Amino acid sequence: MDEENELLRAKLNLETAQIAWRELQRFFAMGAAIAVSPDLDLVEVAFQFTRDNASQVERWLADGKIEPVSDRQAREWFDADARLWSVVVKPWVLVQSR
Fold first, then answer.
1. Residue 98 confidence (pLDDT)
2. With pLDDT > 90 as the criterion, what percentage of the chain qualifies?
3. What is the spatial distance between Cα 95 and Cα 34, in angstroms, rounded to a whole number?
4. What is the total count of domains within the chain?
5. How far apart are CA 7 and CA 20, in angstroms?
6. What separation, in Å, do the N-terminal and C-terminal C-alpha atoms of the chain show?
7. Does the pLDDT of residue 25 top 80, yes or no?
8. What are the residue ranges of helices labelled H in 1-98?
9. Are 80 and 69 a contacting pair, CB within 8 Å?
10. β-strand partners of 18
11. Confidence band, pLDDT 50/70/90 cuts, at residue 1
12. Would you say 21 and 78 are in contact if contact means Cβ atoms under 8 Å apart?
């Protein structure tokens, strides 16, 4: 199981990229864009989503470490033409500003 988990983390790491917010807006419009706090490891968050680790995801939500992208944040990223670290964990797109 450890080897399987490490392979999944490596796969998620390879799928992580910087993407312009303007290219991600359709996911925001669908309510599928999740902002990840800069102090979390984006790949680890994606791994926990992939593993359906609801208790960990709920803790991050309760602590404000992850949350749906707000209208205010979306506008700031749009106005700044921001590029964000992103990874798709269907149906979500996790985004992180660094």
1. 82
2. 98
3. 6
4. 1
5. 27
6. 31
7. yes
8. 2-15, 21-29, 42-50, 54-62, 71-79
9. no
10. 85
11. confident
12. yes
